[in-house]
Amino acid sequence: MHLLRQRYGGNIFHTYAGPNMVVINPITTPSMYSEKVQGCRRKDAAPHIYAVAQSAYRNLLTTRQDQSVVLLGKSGGGKTSNCQHLVQYLVTVAGSSGKIYSAEKWQAVYTILEAFGNGSTATNSNASCFSHIVSLDFDQAGQVASASIQTMLLNKLRVARRPESESTFNVFYYLMAGADGSLKTELHFNHFAESSAFGIMPHVKAEDKQKAAQQFTKLQAAMKVLGISGDEQKAFWLILGAIYHLGAAGATKAGRKQFARHEWAQKAAYLLGCSLEELAPSLGPQPGLRPPRSLKVTAMECLEAMASGLYAELFTMLISLINRALKSSQHSLCSLLIVDTPGFQNPRQTKSDRGATFEELCHNYTQERLQTLFQDRTFVRELERYKEVYTHTHTHTKFYFSLPLGHTLLLKSERPHHFLLGHSHGTDWVEYDVRGWLNHAKQNPASQNAATLLQNSQKKNISGLFMGRSGGSTVLSGSIAGLEGGSQLALRRATGMRKTFTTGMAAVKKKSLCIQIKLQVDALLDTLRRSNVHFVHCLLPRVDALCGVGGAEAAGESCDPSLMQLDIGLLRSQLRCCRLLDAMRIYRQGFPDHMGFSEFRRRFDVLTPHLTKKLGRNYIVKDEKRAVEELLESLELEKSSYHMGLSRVSTRLE
């Protein structure tokens, strides 16, 4: 802990914990993320996020095996920023044929994702509300041949419902503040409603309006860079405007299910290119799409489902257009995947009295599964390798971890409709409020009607964009966006994800959203297990680091302001959560680097030219193990620094 404090105080935010990278969010963007650092070797430079990309890239070139980088940590830990740094480094260093994957293009991608997929939460003023995989496919020469993005676990209900004091997706505020006069008139934005059932209201402060308008200009420029035409952009603005007007229309709380304010509903219908009569049935039961008998939904819940369905369709189409801009027909050999997911979320950390939501449970569940993958790769797999490779358990490999059977503990809360979950081996207790969760167990038919409305729209730019999509009715395409891919490797990964869904199709046919969420995470984990995984642990320096709350409490006895910014208790909790100290211990006490006898001899026999001269270049080795032993003896290495197994030689870190 003292080391982390001193390094953070010296503006050194990266640290190695064995083979894993630890990054404490610097909050601002320091000058260390520059081209000067990109060309340095890992052993010659200080720890840096670029070194992770460099290591993964070199492993890909050496082994010709798929690599992946997984970012873990709490919400606000800087995972998305580090994901961008990784992509920018790989695109710059590896290059691409014809420079089709420029830094400008990737900056445009993340500008769009930030606008449509991020929102403000209690702990992070620009939090990601979806998970995504960036896939970079490399050719024989090591250049980027193709790229694609797959997204999943979009918190689409955020468009209509979210905790108090949190915002909806950024793009709504950008559009309301930045639309020009003609667009405002077309969207009926010259006059905003006094209230909204979805809580979507324009910024009040002039400073916030100005920033949002600038972001909208930046967003339009980014969409132009990716080849998204004016008509396609117009379709997105019309749908976003319709969602706003649906919130302004509201729904009746009792009696007949209908809109509370028909004039606003009429505006929504106009923007969607349908009549009010076609839109109104979305608030009630529909032929062939009736909800289960056990599911009693209100008009407001149907309206929320309709809005979230529209936004999900919009987001899926947006990812398809991004992949269209990244698509390439060049042959690719292997891939490097970068995985970014929303971090652990606990409302109690901000001293909020509310319970965590169902959506926060989904994101925490995803982080738990990724942490399980880290535990498996770091502890379980290493100990199993020692048992399989070595004839006996070496004294240095007797270090044993009593891994718990599960990562999550369950307790009953004293408050009604609440329960406690102890995430990360009980180091992070989250209290959940289960009111309304039963409606998440079954899919609301109103959300399924969104795709039909868009495909049958009288607005040519909307129907023309969505007419080719038949995915709205399928569970898979509605869950994971971007499966169309742009290369053979991308299509192969999509096939693997589809296989994950079809094996559990019996449960999916019940329209269980909970099962769909589990299968999405299963598909993500199955994809990662087929690659060599590199982990980056992103730590949050303090709770109010990204929520605009000033006056951080002093931590420790030092008067150095940069050291005082760290919340030592929070930092210690995060280290215990991911068991980084245990990971360092097994890395230093064990033999983490290993290689087969024949490969080891071929790679390092150049260091012993006298043996090569003695035996001759064409000498056929009959006993590879003995040849490696002679090579190591001639190098005069300490016997405690390596270990000879049945088929591999392992070395340890001195």
UniProtKB/TrEMBL annotation:
Q: Where does ATP bind?
A: G73, K74, S75, G76, G77, G78, K79, T80
Example GO BP: actin filament organization
Listed Pfam families = Myosin_head
Instruction: Give me the Gene Ontology terms describing cellular component.
Output: cytoplasm; membrane; myosin complex
**UniProt keyword annotations, A-Z:** Actin-binding, ATP-binding, Motor protein, Myosin, Nucleotide-binding
Residue ranges spanning the membrane: these are none
Q: Residues in domain Myosin motor?
A: 1-654
**Which family would the database say this protein is a member of?**
Belongs to the TRAFAC class myosin-kinesin ATPase superfamily. Myosin family.
What is the name of this protein?
A: Myosin motor domain-containing protein
Organism of origin is Denticeps clupeoides
